[in-house]
Amino acid sequence: MGRLINWAESRSGPEEFHSSLLLLPLESNSHCHCHGNMNRRPPLLLLLLLLHLIFLPRSDSSSACSTKCGSLDVRYPFGTGFGCGAPNFFPAVTCDGDSDSNRQLTLNTHVGKYPITSISYSASTVTVVPPLMSTCATMHPAGSPAFGLDWSAPFQIAPAASVFVLLACASPLAVGPPLCDPAAGPRLCSSLLACPAVAAIGLPLYAPTNTCCVYSPAGLGPKGDLDIQRLGCSSYASVKSTGSWSQTDASTWEYGVVLQYGEAGTSVAEDVVTAEACSACEGSGGACGYAPPKDYFVCVCDSGLNTSTDCYGLSADELKNFWSTSTATATNHPTWTIASSRGN
Q: Fewer CB near the terminus (10 Å): N or C of the chain?
């Protein structure tokens, strides 16, 4: 008698069904109704189940892919783990934290970790707040380097989106050009030096403005660092916006470093194709990702499966109903089997 694989023991879903195919030993089945015809075609339902397993493999990284990280919406090219988003953005950007309540999207560089506080997908910018950056409320000496980016990562300081203000400087600087409190525009230095927190960096309240300089346009050194100690200063702030009503009240300003991002090493045609595929994926509730080792685009679905298109028809509820119906059918016909190619 031929050797048979009985698949009727699956009860709850695709994982158990998959395991029953792979792990159950081959055994003789005295109830087989094959009558010696080993070329009989298997039932259509069984073929459909096998096709689902073959062409919709589970994604090893699907459990790490999410469209949220903390309070931020995570969309392509960003991802929440390996295999999510665009490959050249990992591990430069990760979703850190062990629970939904404390998860934080983070930029990782050779200098340190910077929390990402906001993303503008239309402008292709992110805002980060380095832990050692000063604000009107809190000032402290920064280490050296104070801020840094990896040249290999797809980020650079966004021009004119934020400016560095160097504080507690030994002498007026010759970097930039120095725009220390220009005649026009907000008076950044005098406003920051009116913050009581300046005492933490060794300055008196309303210190002379020659101890401060607006570093604009903001540039990084040859290693991609802002080395404020080399520049003769001990602290810095990065001002994203002074607002429209209280430009001289530094306590109301928005602080952070605005970075421009973009994918490197891809052609315009590849970008268009990926953008279209990703739009369809995200529109169906999936998260855009990639499949190593060749990093092909995949759409990671919340059902735990991935596809090369979108997640329509692959929701967890739809799959649960599909597998439940299939299992019920199998229970009613427990003798349906896949026969091996050997004869009697």
A: C
Which residues neighbour 135 within 8 Å (Cβ) at sequence distance 6 or greater?
197, 237, 253, 255
Q: From CA 72, how far away is CA 101, in angstroms rounded?
A: 12
Contact 89, 78 (CB under 8 A): yes
The four Cα atoms 22, 23, 25, 29 give a dihedral, to 10 degrees, of -70
Adjacent-strand bridge partners of 105: 95
Q: What predicted TM-score, i.e. pTM, was given to this entire model? A: 0.70
The Cα 117–Cα 125 span in angstroms is 11
**Nearest-angstrom CA–CA distance, 56 and 60:** 12
- So what's the pLDDT on residue 167? 92
Taking only the tens place, the pLDDT of each residue in 152-210 is: 899 999 987 888 898 998 865 544 444 454 544 568 888 999 999 999 999 999 998 88
User: Are the C-beta atoms of 167 and 134 separated by less than 8 Å?
Assistant: yes
End-to-end CA distance of the chain: 4
DSSP annotation of 323: H
